[in-house]
């Protein structure tokens, strides 16, 4: 049975949305993701712009300005709610781990 779109987020999706708490453009997002994760997670331009388009269509983000080819985006309430849901899901996983392995 296929999983519903955005039921869970990949690391790249999570960090892209996290970066958009503040308005920024695609190049800024790529840099911030790498910086936030100490280089552990990288987002290439193809993946980034594909996800930005999907997030925008889903109402998670909105485009704030366009200057030439440079487009800026910001997180919307629906996107923040998705981030919070994913955070809770991940926290539940780590809590379960701690309950079994850290007793």
What does this entry show, briefly?
By secondary structure, the protein is of the alpha+beta class. It has helices at 11-19, 26-36, 45-58, 77-101, and strands at residues 24-25, 61-67, 70-75.
Your description of this structure?
This protein has 103 residues and is of the alpha+beta class. The protein has a single domain (11-101), classed as Arc Repressor Mutant, subunit A (Orthogonal Bundle). Helix content is 57%, strand content 15%. A three-stranded antiparallel beta sheet has the order 1-3-2. It is globular. The termini are far apart.
The CATH homologous superfamily is named: Winged helix-like DNA-binding domain superfamily/Winged helix DNA-binding domain
Which H/E pattern describes the elements?
Answer: HEHHEEH
Lateral strand order in the biggest sheet: 1-3-2
Classification by helices and strands: alpha+beta
The coarse silhouette is globular
Q: Would you count the extended β strands for me?
A: 3
- Please indicate the count of domains: 1
């Amino acid at each position: 049975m296929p999983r519903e779109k955005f039921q869970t987020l990949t690391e790249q999706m999570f960090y892209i949305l996290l970066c958009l708490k503040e308005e920024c453009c695609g190049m800024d997002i790529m840099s911030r993701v790498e910086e936030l994760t100490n280089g552990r997670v990288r987002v290439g331009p193809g993946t980034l712009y594909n996800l930005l388009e999907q997030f925008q269509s889903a109402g998670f983000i909105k485009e704030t300005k366009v200057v030439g080819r440079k487009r800026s985006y910001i997180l919307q309430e629906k996107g923040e709610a998705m981030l919070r849901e994913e955070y809770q899901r991940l926290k539940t996983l780590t809590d379960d781990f701690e309950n079994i392995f850290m007793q």
